[in-house]
Specification:
It catalyses: L-arginyl-[protein] + NAD(+) = N(omega)-(ADP-D-ribosyl)-L-arginyl-[protein] + nicotinamide + H(+). The protein has 403 residues and is an alpha/beta fold. The protein has two domains: 128 residues, 3-Layer(aba) Sandwich (Rossmann fold), CATH 3.40.50; 247 residues, Toxin ADP-ribosyltransferase, Chain A, domain 1 (Alpha-Beta Complex). The chain has 16 helices and 14 strands. The strands form three sheets. A six-stranded mixed sheet has the order 6-8-13-14-10-7. A five-stranded parallel sheet has the order 2-1-3-4-5, sandwiched between helices. Strand 4, helix 6 and strand 5 form a beta-alpha-beta unit. Helix 1 runs antiparallel to helix 8 and helix 9 runs antiparallel to helix 10. The radius of gyration is 22 Å and the shape is globular.
Length: 403
């Protein structure tokens, strides 16, 4: 594939290596690991196959282990992926002391036949979500926790305006500029795609990724038959294969996959711009100049420290940035209980200026499966200025004002 890419994109790939955006980084994602010594036993096969089938229908990479040495070595080797671990009760007793401290393990789900024997582990280990005896509740909890991590993730780059020379840019400031350039290149090469081959190329990639997943393969075929450029927001809001793979590529800055999705990304950006223009017309009628928007999330102590020390600096979200008109929805996300000790709730307060050609956003509630969330979506790689950061004792969370 590399030889067919435009020279500008190849140059970006080479440049990414100098900024620490490596192939290893590009593989970062979410993985579900099921670790159970009885998985291969004949008498358990029917239940095991049902559980495996349910796990494979999830839109995440799933691995199965029966041997402790192989599983533990794999968990030790992970430096980038976020791991959601399903483990049998007896294995939990034997191995949680060793593996609970592994940084890449986010959540642990104990799956067993005798929950009363293992409930004490929930109190002993902070990453243990619960003890489960049947597939439905396990899968529901797994999906809830994975989706929560994805929604609360804030992948951003900071740029200190005092650093004027590229030569003296820090790695983060360099990544900030790199991503801005990448989005422009994607738009340019999409315009140059006269034969519009990009959509079929994207769908072929998606079919390979989701082979064996009948739910998403059906969605892909529906997309192939019915998709039009004006449906881009609708498909993004469905949170199916398009939403997941586009955000995975943006989150991991995977240049090859971003190139594969170039046409759809450009359609989505174009529709956001069109909806923004319509919003501006409506706001002019009511003489509204600024819309207050919110985003609730969890941030690490280090990220909060960076933000506090970047007042007046710029921040760019490496993706399409979702916000809400409803502060209660945002606060709910920010204050959602987390077992992780290294994160805190953060409420982003954003002043969206109407009529600005620098900040493009669209009210997408009409397209969403969840209109009650009052979602407003910002264009790719929107840049904000950090105005104020403080801890709100009343709400018991950090508030950060962006404009």
């Amino acid at each position: 594939m590399a030889s067919s890419l435009p020279i500008d994109l190849n140059a970006l790939r080479r440049k990414s290596a100098t900024l620490g955006i490596s192939d290893e980084h590009a593989s970062e994602d979410f993985t579900v690991v099921w670790f159970d010594q009885y998985m291969d036993e004949v008498e358990n096969q029917e239940d095991v196959e049902i559980t495996k089938g349910l796990l494979r229908e999830l839109n995440y990479y799933v691995l199965f282990f029966t041997k402790p040495e192989l599983c533990i070595n794999y968990l030790k080797s992970i430096s980038k992926e976020t791991i959601f671990l399903i483990i049998s009760g007896s294995y939990a007793v034997d191995h949680l002391d060793k593996i609970h401290s592994f940084k890449r393990i986010d959540s642990i789900f104990i799956f067993c036949m005798c929950p009363e024997k293992y409930l004490y582990l929930k109190e002993k280990y902070t990453k243990v979500i619960d003890v489960f005896t049947e597939q439905t509740s396990l899968i529901e909890s797994l999906i809830s926790n994975v989706e929560s991590v994805i929604k609360q993730a804030a992948v951003f780059a900071l740029f200190d305006g005092k650093q004027r020379s590229t030569r003296y840019l820090t790695r983060e400031s360099g990544a900030f500029l790199w991503f801005q350039l990448l989005t422009d290149v994607i738009k340019t090469i999409t315009i140059a795609d006269k034969e519009n081959t990009g959509i079929e190329e994207m769908l072929t990639h998606c079919e390979a990724y989701y082979r064996g997943n009948p739910v998403e393969l059906k969605n892909i075929e529906e997309f192939r038959k019915n998709y039009k450029p004006e449906d881009a927001i609708f498909w993004y809001s469905k949170q199916s294969f398009v939403y997941r793979l586009v955000n995975k590529a943006l989150r991991t800055e995977d240049i090859d996959v971003l190139y594969t999705f170039r046409v759809y990304i450009t359609h989505l950006r174009s529709q956001i711009t069109s909806e923004h223009q319509q919003l501006c017309v409506e706001c002019q009628k009511t003489k509204t100049k600024i819309i207050r928007l919110y985003r609730g999330l969890k941030m690490s102590s280090n990220d909060i420290f960076q933000m506090r020390n970047s007042i007046g600096g710029l921040i760019s979200m490496n993706g399409f940035f979702s916000t809400s008109r409803d502060i209660e929805q945002a606060v709910k996300f920010a204050t959602k209980e987390s077992k992780r000790k290294d994160v805190a709730g953060v409420l982003l307060e954003i002043n969206g200026t109407i009529g600005s050609d620098k900040i493009i956003f669209a009210d997408i509630a009409q397209f969403s499966q969840f209109p009650e969330e009052k979602e407003v979506l910002f264009d790719l790689a929107t840049v904000f200025k950090i105005v104020h950061v403080e801890f709100d004792k009343g709400k018991k969370l950090w508030t950060m004002q962006l404009t």
